[in-house]
Amino acid sequence: PRHIAVIMDGNGRWARKRHLPRVAGHRAGVKSVREIIEASCRLHLEALTLYAFSVENWKRPRSEVETLWGLLRHYLHRELPELKRNDVRFQVIGRIDGLPAAVQNDLDVAMVETAANSGLRLNIALNYGGRAEIVDAVNSLLARARKLDGPLEVDERMLGEHLYTAGLPDPDLLIRTSGEMRVSNFLLWQIAYAEIFVTDKFWPDFHTLNLLEALLDYQKRERRYGGLGDSTKTAEPDRELVAVNGRETTAEPDAGELPSTPLRQ
Ligand code: FPP
Predict the structure, then answer these.
(1) Probe ligand 1: pick from 6, 7, 8, 181, max atoms within 8 Å of CB?
(2) Mind listing the pLDDT tens digit for each residue in 216-253?
(3) Rounded to whole angstroms, how far apart are CA atoms 143 and 105?
C-alpha cells in the first residue's frame, strides 16, 4: 500500500485491564505511535494517517482532553528532531483552528520545520470528522464558485482537491485496533475502496509485527474496485513478501522478532 490510515482505539481499555487511569493508556499509546511511524519510514510508505482526536472527543472529561494535548505537545518537542532525521513531513488534518493556541503553535512549528522533507507524509487527524471535512470541502468549493464568472461544475477529482488530504493518494488500507467494526467518521470520502483490517489488540499493544501482519493480510486480498478482477490468479505464494512501493522484504509475523537488517533494500 502507498497510504495506511489507522484508527487508534483501545487506550482506555488497555489501562482498565491493568487497573490504571485512562491517561496511562494514552501514554502507552504514544509509544505505539512512535513505533508505527518508525516502521512506516523503514517500509518506505508514502503516507500514514493516524486518527488521534475526533470532533466528538470533546465530550470526554476535560482533564482527559487536556492530558491528550499535553501528550501531543510533549511528543512533538521530543520527537521533532527524530522526525527530521527520518525525512518525515509532518502534517495535520482536521479543524485545527479549534485547538488550543499553544497546540496550534507547536503543530505549526513541526509542519514548517518538516515542510521540505520528502519521506513519509505523516498526517495526524485532530479535531477531525469525516462529515465535517466534506462540509468544509463543499464550502470551499462554494467560495470558489462565487469568485468565478460562470457556473462551477464539481466532479470527484475537484472535491478531492478540496479535502484536507488534497495531494495524497487515498488510503489503500485502513487499520482499526481493539476490535470494533466501525468507521467512526474517519476519512469517509477517501476510504471508498480501502481494505479494512481490524485487530482485537488494543492500540498500546499494537507493534511493528502487527503492522506487518496487516500488510501481509492486505497483500492476499484481491482489489477489484467494482470490476471483476483477475479470476485466473491462483492464491497463496510460496513465500510471503511484504512489498511496499516496489521494495520487497521477507517478513514472518509469527517469528516473534523483526529481521535485524532494515526492511528496505
Ligand atoms: C483511543 O483510545 C485513543 C485516542 C482517542 C487518543 C489517541 C491519542 C494518542 C495515542 C496520544 C497522542 C497522539 C499523538 C499523535 C502523539 P480510547 O481512549 O478511545 O480507548 P477506549 O475506547 O478503550 O476507551
Answers:
(1) 8
(2) 999 999 777 788 877 555 444 444 455 555 555 554 44
(3) 27
SS3 158: helix
Q: 50 near 3, Cβ under 8 Å?
A: no
| Chain segment 85-119, per-residue pLDDT in tens | 999 999 999 999 999 999 999 999 999 999 999 99
Extract the C-alpha cell encoding 38: 518508525
d(CA 210, CA 219): 14
C-alpha separations of 211 from 35, 36, 122, 162, 175 in Å: 10, 7, 16, 30, 9
Enumerate the active-site residues: 9, 57
Pocket of ligand 1 (CB under 6 A): 8-13, 26, 29-30, 33, 50, 52, 57, 68, 71-72, 75, 124
Classify burial at 203, counting beta carbons within 10 Å of its beta carbon; exposed 0-12, middle 13-18, buried 19 or more.
buried
Cα 67 to Cα 24, 61, 191, 200, 206, distances in angstroms: 10, 10, 30, 25, 21
Q: From atom 4 of ligand 1, which residue's Cα is the shortest distance away? A: 52
